């Protein structure tokens, strides 16, 4: 669509960004046929980060857009919750019913009884975040999002004082690339694009560190398979070797860090032998890793979101980030570290999200505690009223959230009204009272920014949506009219007007400039990206001694919430922090639930090609564990803990450690043998200090 003229361009290439919850935010070239339908989706070759490469599931996006099971009309539940009987209704009637239900909940229990709930089903700012404007205007319960980034972002910012780092494209100038805590082949394919280019052009070594021998590990020159949650022990041992063998850059440490002498003294006992006992690696492997990164000045540490999936993830991220700092890697082109660029963009979302309307006395509820909240847990409700009405956009909590039995129990409450605005009949939608059909990214206007790279990309409407399908913004605007807040700041604006406001920050292009150029690169200059003029803390130092509960941390919860999790257990300096869910006699296995290649959270689980490539839900276990229990590939096994149990087919493999079980992907619950998915077994207890979920950190038993 040519937004300036409103004219659909036939037989052309449209330009957009992938809207899904992935740090790559790939720039896309999208075929638009003479019939007004999209065809092949390709990575934009002229975008220096995407470099023409995208994942296969997004390349097949037409399969998702034109799926026969896509929701096409608003529907009202007819029978019992979850019975699957629906009646088509008019949009006006549906919106009236939502507004009526919200007003009833407000009249009975106060405005905090309504909890608008969303997440990153789209990463477009307008369609994702407008729900917050309605929340704040109506004084509904706040939403503290914790499911994804909190531990990793917190640990990174505690070290650097900022959420930015070395330009990820600098990997092509590196002599060693450490891919740590991310299966980039599966989840961030562009990382591999730049890393492999460095290997081809410079002979760079690729070192991968993870908890099983996944596809990224198989492409690495050196693959280190750790016990889950032991990353900090490896980092500390490598720093010990750096001080011991002279790899530590003492001049850099004196100029740029807070307490290098204290760190060195602390690390005296953190030997490779100590770390070997914790990580399961050999002393020789730890020594080799420490030697390679210690003697290779241009080592790039690409730190991933695996750190966010463990109960000690904040500490582990901070420890891994401390290693390139001890080595002084930041000083060199192609050296240093990167996790996210989230702080560099300068985009303005105050009007979009209704920041001027925030009432600081309104409670904030932890997104990841939804099961406990909906089943009346007083602590999770923050001793406030029950949640009795919800609008859900861009997320599927009945599938993706921990403690699934509690989540489902909560959604089945007869006194809970739920409206779900969705693209498919997800398992959350199945338990709703009203289901509304939502547009997909090529059917509406939005704006995107990378987290794993540095571009702001415009995502203009390229094709017309189905006749009875509406945008997220439409739903928010219509509810605001019915709920009496449409006159508040930020309402009554179009997508374009919101995007123009978002782009009003200093140094950003105008809307028309961005439309013409497709994207703008916001990567800071070399000195800024490498922190050569100082780190982001007030003292301009990297902090080896973090203030774990620093309210200035970008992931700090709202002022009316306290730090979370076992804060008192957090160490003074980088260290292994044993707050993981350790095995015991009754639960001798560690279960991790990393992403599958052809799904993205619960998206793409509906497409035939992705499902056929993934096969079925399976549990990966080692040959040693299988032999001990008499289990063969294809056998049905049961895994469980105090939260529940799941039956699943076994796959025997040499890619996992003894005592570690891997269940890839988030398969729909209905695809499991008993209709209960893998998140039945994951716990919602908070990660210290600012929340998160140990999705890869759960102890279980296993039975044939």
TrEMBL record:
Keyword Iron included in the entry's annotation: yes
Cofactor(s) listed: Mo-bis(molybdopterin guanine dinucleotide)
Protein name (Swiss-Prot/TrEMBL): Molybdopterin oxidoreductase family protein
Domain 4Fe-4S Mo/W bis-MGD-type residues, every copy: 11-69
PANTHER family recorded: OXIDOREDUCTASE YYAE-RELATED, TRIMETHYLAMINE-N-OXIDE REDUCTASE
InterPro entries documented for this protein: Asp_de-COase-like_dom_sf, MoPterin_dinucl-bd_dom, Mopterin_OxRdtase, Mopterin_OxRdtase_4Fe-4S_dom, Mopterin_OxRdtase_prok_CS, Prok_Mopterin_Oxidored, YoaE_C
Highest taxon of the lineage: Bacteria
Pfam families: Molybdop_Fe4S4, Molybdopterin, Molydop_binding
Family label: Belongs to the prokaryotic molybdopterin-containing oxidoreductase family.
Keyword Lipid metabolism: no
Keywords: Iron, Iron-sulfur, Metal-binding, Molybdenum, Oxidoreductase
Species annotation: Rhizobium alvei
């Amino acid at each position: 669509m040519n937004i300036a003229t409103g004219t659909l361009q036939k037989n052309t290439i449209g330009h957009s960004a992938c809207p899904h919850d992935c740090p790559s935010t790939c720039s896309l070239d999208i075929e638009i046929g003479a019939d007004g339908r999209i065809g092949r989706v390709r990575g934009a070759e002229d975008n220096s980060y995407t470099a023409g490469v995208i994942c296969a599931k997004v390349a097949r996006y037409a399969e998702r857009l034109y799926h026969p099971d896509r929701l096409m009309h608003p529907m009202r539940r007819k029978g019992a919750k979850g019975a699957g009987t629906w009646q088509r209704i008019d949009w006006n009637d549906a919106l009236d019913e939502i507004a009526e239900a919200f007003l009833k909940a407000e009249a009975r229990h106060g405005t905090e009884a309504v909890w608008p709930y969303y997440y990153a089903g789209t990463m477009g700012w307008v369609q994702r975040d407008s729900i917050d404007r309605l929340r704040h205007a109506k004084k509904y319960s706040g939403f503290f999002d914790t499911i994804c980034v909190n531990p990793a972002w917190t640990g990174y910012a505690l070290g650097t004082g900022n959420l930015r780092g070395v330009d990820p494209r600098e990997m092509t100038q590196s002599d060693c690339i450490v891919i740590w805590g991310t299966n980039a082949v599966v989840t961030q394919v562009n990382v591999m694009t730049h890393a492999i280019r460095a290997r081809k052009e410079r002979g760079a070594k690729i070192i991968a560190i993870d908890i099983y021998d996944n596809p990224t590990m198989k492409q690495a020159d050196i693959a280190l398979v750790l016990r889950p949650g032991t990353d900090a022990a490896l980092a500390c041992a490598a720093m010990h070797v750096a001080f011991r063998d002279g790899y530590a850059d003492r001049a850099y440490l004196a100029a740029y860090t807070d307490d290098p002498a204290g760190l060195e003294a602390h690390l005296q006992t953190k030997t490779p032998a100590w770390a070997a006992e914790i990580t399961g690696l050999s002393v020789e492997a730890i020594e080799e890793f420490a030697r390679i990164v210690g003697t290779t000045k241009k080592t790039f540490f690409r730190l991933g979101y695996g750190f966010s999936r463990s109960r000690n993830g904040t500490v582990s991220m901070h420890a891994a980030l401390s290693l390139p700092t001890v080595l002084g890697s930041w000083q060199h082109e192609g050296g240093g570290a990167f996790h996210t660029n989230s702080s560099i963009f300068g985009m303005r979302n105050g009007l979009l999200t209704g920041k001027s309307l925030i009432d600081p006395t309104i409670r904030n509820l932890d997104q990841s505690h939804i099961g406990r909240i909906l089943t009346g847990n007083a602590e999770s409700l923050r001793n406030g009223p029950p949640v009795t009405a919800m609008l859900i956009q861009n997320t599927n909590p009945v599938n993706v959230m921990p403690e699934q039995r509690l989540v489902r129990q909560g959604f089945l409450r007869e006194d809970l009204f739920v409206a779900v605005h969705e693209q498919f009949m997800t398992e959350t939608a199945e338990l709703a009272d009203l289901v509304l059909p939502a547009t997909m990214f090529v059917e509406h206007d939005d704006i995107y920014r990378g987290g794993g790279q540095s571009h702001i990309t415009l995502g203009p409407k390229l094709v017309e949506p189905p006749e009875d399908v509406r945008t997220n913004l439409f739903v928010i605007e219509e509810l605001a009219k019915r709920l009496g807040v449409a006159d508040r700041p930020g309402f009554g604006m179009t997508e374009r007007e919101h995007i123009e406001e978002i782009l009003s920050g200093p140094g950003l292009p105008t809307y028309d400039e961005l439309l013409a150029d497709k994207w703008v690169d916001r990567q800071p200059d070399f000195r800024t990206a490498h922190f050569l003029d100082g780190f982001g803390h007030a003292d301009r130092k990297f902090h080896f001694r973090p203030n774990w509960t620093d309210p200035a941390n970008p992931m700090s919860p709202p002022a009316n919430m306290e730090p979370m999790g076992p804060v008192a257990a957090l160490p003074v300096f980088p260290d292994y922090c044993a707050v993981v869910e350790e095995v015991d006699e009754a639960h001798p296995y560690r279960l991790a639930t990393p992403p599958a290649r052809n799904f993205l959270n619960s998206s793409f689980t509906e497409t035939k090609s992705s499902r056929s490539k993934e096969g079925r839900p399976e549990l990966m276990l080692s040959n040693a564990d299988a032999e001990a229990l008499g289990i063969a590939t294809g056998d049905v096994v049961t895994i469980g803990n105090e939260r529940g149990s799941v039956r699943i087919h076994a796959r025997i493999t040499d890619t996992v450690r003894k005592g570690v079980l891997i269940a890839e992907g988030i398969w729909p619950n209905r695809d499991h043998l008993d209709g209960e998915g893998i998140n039945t077994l994951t716990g919602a207890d908070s990660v210290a200090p600012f929340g998160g979920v140990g999705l890869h950190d759960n102890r279980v038993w296993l039975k044939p």
